Amino acid sequence: MSKHWGGRRAQQIRAKLAETLPTRCWRCGRLVTSDMAWDVGHLLEVDLDPSGAYDPDRYAVEHARCNRRAGARYGNRKRSGRRGSHRWTSRDW
Ligand SMILES: [Zn+2]
C-alpha cells in the first residue's frame, strides 16, 4: 500500500468490501472469495486526486496477486515488500 493509504478509514473501506465477497476481481474478472488473499484495488490512482482518497466508490476487490502485478507497473516504491523472490520489475504479462 502506498503512503496515502492506511489508517482507520482504509480499514473501514476494506471491511465494506469484505461484505461484498464473494465478488469478481475488477482486474481479471474471476471470483474472489473470503478465503483467498485479496486487496483493496484503487480504481483511480490516489496520487492523481488525494482529496477523494477515501471515497469507497473508488475501490474494488481484487486478488492480491492482481494487485501486485499492477504494482509492478508503477515501479519501485513497493519493492521492499513481502516475498523477496518476486521480480517487481519484470513484465510477465
Ligand atoms: Zn484478479
Can you tell me about this structure?
Helix content is 24%, strand content 15%. Strand 1 and strand 2 (31-32) form a beta hairpin. The protein contains two helices and four strands. It has one domain (7-79). The model has no long low-confidence stretch (mean pLDDT 77). It is an alpha+beta fold and 93 residues long. The radius of gyration is 13 Å and the shape is globular. Bound molecules: zinc ion (ZN). The site of zinc ion has 7 residues, from strand 4. Zinc ion (ZN) is lined by residues 25, 27-28, 30, 62-63, 66.
Number of strands: 4
User: Strand portion, in percent?
Assistant: 15-25%
**Cα shape:** globular
Distance between the termini: 22 Å
| Helix amount | 10-25%
The secondary-structure class comes to: alpha+beta
User: If you compute it from the alpha carbons, what radius of gyration comes out, rounded to the nearest whole angstrom?
Assistant: 13 Å
Q: What count of domains describes the coordinates?
A: 1
| Tally of individual helices | 2
Spatial order of strands in the largest sheet: 1-2
Query: How is the biggest beta sheet arranged?
Result: 2 strands, antiparallel
- N-to-C series of helices and strands: HEEEEH
Average pLDDT number: 77
Give every kind of bound small molecule, once each. Answer: zinc ion
Low-pLDDT runs: none
